[in-house]
Amino acid sequence: MPLGFVLAVVYFWLARPSWGSMAMGAIGILPGLFIRGLASGHVRKNEELATSGPYGYTRNPLYLGSLLIGIGFAVAARSWWVGVALVVMFFAIYLPVIRDEEIFLRQKFPEFEEYAGRVPRMFPRIGLRGPGENEELSGFSFALYLKHREYNALLGALAIMAVLMVKIVFLQRH
Questions:
Q1: Domain spans of the chain?
Q2: Sign of CA dihedral 118, 120, 124, 126
Q3: Could you report the per-residue pLDDT of 86-99, keeping only the tens digit for each?
Q4: Mean pLDDT, 10 residues at a time, over the chain (174 residues)?
Q5: Are 16 and 97 in contact (CB under 8 A)?
Q6: Alpha-helix runs per DSSP H in 41-79
Q7: Of 162, 160, 157, 164, nearest in space to 18 by CA
Q8: Residue-level pLDDT at 89
Q9: What CATH topology corresponds to 13-173?
Q10: pLDDT score, position 81
């Protein structure tokens, strides 16, 4: 947690946002938040293998959403340093986590191997059909969304955008 605060201070220090960069950043942030929110309403951690909704297109929609959000905030910050740091940190942190999670899922759910052969790890393939006939696209649970506290991603994104807006206004006056 303390590292997160240090990184946030560095992010805001390096950020040189403009209204245009924030609008462009929102192009990544909003779909990222949507994907994360949708995924959180489909996953029943450690109870069953999630294959419905966005899990029919990518095995890791939560991480894909986080990557889109990170790229969006890098664009909003208008700083190459921030962009490079966010992408490097994402892959340095999440790739080992994804590998460990897949080891766990293979052990816990025998059907994971077939699922992994059918659905890409991170980036959906163009033209991918998505969930099979026995898997439904519906089934989003708002209760699961709340249980996983995914609304915190939305609140955090709004807070970051608000601070960037304050920085724009402050920089324009000085």
A1: 13-173
A2: negative
A3: 888 888 988 999 99
A4: 77 92 96 96 90 93 94 94 86 92 95 95 75 58 92 95 94 66
A5: no
A6: 61-77
A7: 164
A8: 86
A9: Four Helix Bundle (Hemerythrin (Met), subunit A) (1.20.120)
A10: 87
Exposed e or buried b for every residue in 1-24, given b needs 16+ CB within 10 A?
Answer: eeeeeeeeeebbeebebeeebbee
Give the separation between CA 43 and CA 48, rounded to whole angstroms. 8
Q: Is 34 in contact with 97 (CB distance < 8 Å)?
A: no
Decide if 81 contacts 20 (C-beta within 8 A).
no
Q: How far is CA 151 from CA 22, 112, 141, 146, in A?
A: 21, 28, 13, 7
What distances in angstroms separate CA 19 from CA 69, 139, 162, one per listed residue? 17, 37, 12
Structure-block tokens of residue 107: 């052990």
**Among the listed residues 65, 82, 83, the one whose alpha carbon sits nearest the alpha carbon of residue 157:** 65
Report the pLDDT value the prediction gives residue 9, as an integer from 0 to 100.
Answer: 87
pTM of structure: 0.88
Which token pair is 100? Answer: 């460990």
Tokens of 132: 């099979």
What is the Cα–Cα distance from 56 to 115, expressed in whole angstroms? 9
Please give the Cα distance from 154 to 39 (Å, whole number): 14
